[in-house]
Amino acid sequence: MTLSKLSLRNARRQAGDYLIYFVTVVLSAALIHAFNGLVFSEELSALSSFMESLPAFIIMVSILVICVMGWLIHYVTTFMLSRRSRELGTYILIGLENSQVARLFFLENLIVGGAALALGLVLGGMIFQVLRAIILSLFHAPYTFSLALSPMAVMLTFVYFTVIYLLVLRKSRKSIRTMNIHDLIYYEKKNEEEAVKKSRSRRKLFTAAILSGITGTPLLLTGNMPLILLGTICAVFFLYGFFLSFSSGVPAWFEKRPGKKYASHALLIFRGLSAKLTTMGLTMATVSLLFTVTIISEGTGMLFGTLFQSRVEGSTCFDIFIGTEASDLDGNASEDDAAHSTAAADSFQTSAGTSADDTSASPGSTSLPAADTFLRRIENPETCIESAAPEFMPYLEYIGSEIPLRASMQYNIYQGENRQVTDYIDQNSEYYSYYSYDPLMAYSDYAALRQMLGYSDAPLEPGHYIIHCMAYLGNLMENYNQDISVSGNRLSPGSVYTEHFSQKLWDGNGRAFILVVPDEHLASRPVSHKIYGAMTNVPLTQAQDDRLQEIHENQMGGSAGLTHFTTGYCTLMTKTSLTREYAAVSACTIFPLYYLALILTMAAATILTVQQLSESIRYRQQFTLLGKLGMDRLEMAQALRKQLAIYYCLPALPPLLISIPFLWAMGHTFEPGTINGPGQLTGILGTALGLFFLIYFVYILMAYSSLKKTVLTE
User: Fold this and answer.
1) pLDDT tens, 32-79?
2) How far apart are CA 222 and CA 461, in angstroms?
3) In the sheet where 513-517 sits, what is the strand order?
4) Chain-centre distance for alpha carbon 228
5) Main-chain phi, psi angles of 531, to 5 degrees
6) What is the pTM of this model?
7) Does 486 score more than 70 pLDDT?
8) Which residues have C-beta within 8 Å of that of residue 73, sequence separation ≥ 6?
9) Which segments of 493-590 does DSSP mark as H helices, in order?
10) Which of 266, 221, 271, 217 is nearest to 239 (CA)?
């Protein structure tokens, strides 16, 4: 039999014996190829200027992914060399040269890698279509299936794997060439050297590692960067110290508790685990570190997704939003505010849509005819432009001629007499205080806006005021029972509403809350800022949105982006721009984070599973002996399950102790209102952990099924 045929036969056998490893390499190649496809996709890059950052993010993550894949392939290749060392030594005994055996091992691994890469490229093309469809749906762009593959993506993936395999196999080939027959045959007896030789030193290290974990975890929650860095160092020391000293630390614990040592299957299970960790402590610690990064990546991706979605929903409830700069942010009223106070009656009547001869709006009235009248009038673009504030004119001229509107409205936000509600929220909740006053809105404007946005009616009882706030403040404001004073009138708290109402911007409908009061009480109140909001018949096209952004940039005297907060200018936001920004940022951050997490999970779980399955012969001999000593099959199955459960839990539990507090602290660093209470944050963490353990459980199930079939034979 020629070396080529022997290499091919061994490659087939290797793919079967290490099927989990082979499948993992195929899936990894597929994911790498799919994300390389995103890097070189001109179609996706053209969706938004924000998408220009996608290749950089994916390449950065891919570098880490390639390093992890290189470590996986090197580890498994070295492991296979140790397991097949007797076979390779036998080839030398029967007359083959070391160089021929080295070439044989090189070729069979190259065949396995080539087959995995070929399958990965095919599967990666399908995964790319899935990713492409998801990104296009985020941009609300049409998707058409196409089998076209990017030659550059294929080439880059091929280069990645060629470099990895050539570097890994070159080292293995060199090792085989320099080994004599004795070293090669007994190579499988070589174990990982213990970093800490003495048992007493390992026990001290075990104690130090536990203390380091207890100390480091709280430091990750401080929010202080130097302390977080110190906490990270403590956490890494905990992981490596724990696993390097486990083989001495746990037996020492059992020595002091002989009752637990000989209970049930404890002695059998922990002697096996201690022996295993003695030979793979560094590997187990590295796997645990990868799991920590995996959970943090998944959790961060979900938290970022929540953050981006919250910003889109909270920034504007309108299809088109234009707001002027809020005045008196520092507590110093401008000269214009004095003029506003003398003409405020006309201002609020114009906002509400009342006319000089409209007698239906009597003092204290809370009926809706004025709002209906306003909506009917404002739907006429020409009338809208005639009554528009000067700041809005350049935008409205284009909107009135080119964009069909379902409804639109211009109105004022007023300054309250004090900041009693602001202070109450500031003292009892997470809140970024922007105004030196409580923002106020005329009820007729509020009623018209609710009708325009499709919300239910919100009646205002005489002598009361309405609180409209973001959802995270809902429960707090329900308990607020203080009267407010507006122009000398005492108003009692009324209903609280929490629908999306453009309350994330300081030039929106209040920062996180606004107080809705009867119109006539605002006659002497200065205007804080002006807002124009519009709902379109159909979503803005890309061209329409780009034209609005161009007008906005001209107003700003240069590039202004989606928002601009310079004194004397406006803020422009559109649902289309926000959606595009959300889609692009999601693609540039969330997708790479999940890509990284998936690769890390598969690589780490593969190493654990390959190590466990490699012990199947030893386990079978061990359980055969136990059967002869009287242990029945049910007990053996129970012992095997316990041993596997502890083996797979050991590298997964420390990451939970580190990642959960870290992600919990990260969730609380976001702007107020992003995470709506502990329940939502718990749900995010639960989902992230669920995704991780779902993949992990698949590997555990495959290992148990294989071992049960091999070990517990009749």
Assistant:
1) 999 999 888 888 888 877 788 888 889 889 999 999 999 999 888 888
2) 46
3) 484-486, 489-497, 464-469, 513-517, 439-442, 405-415, 527-536, 320-324, 570-574
4) 20
5) -135, 140
6) 0.78
7) yes
8) 25, 113, 164, 165, 168
9) 542-556, 575-585
10) 217
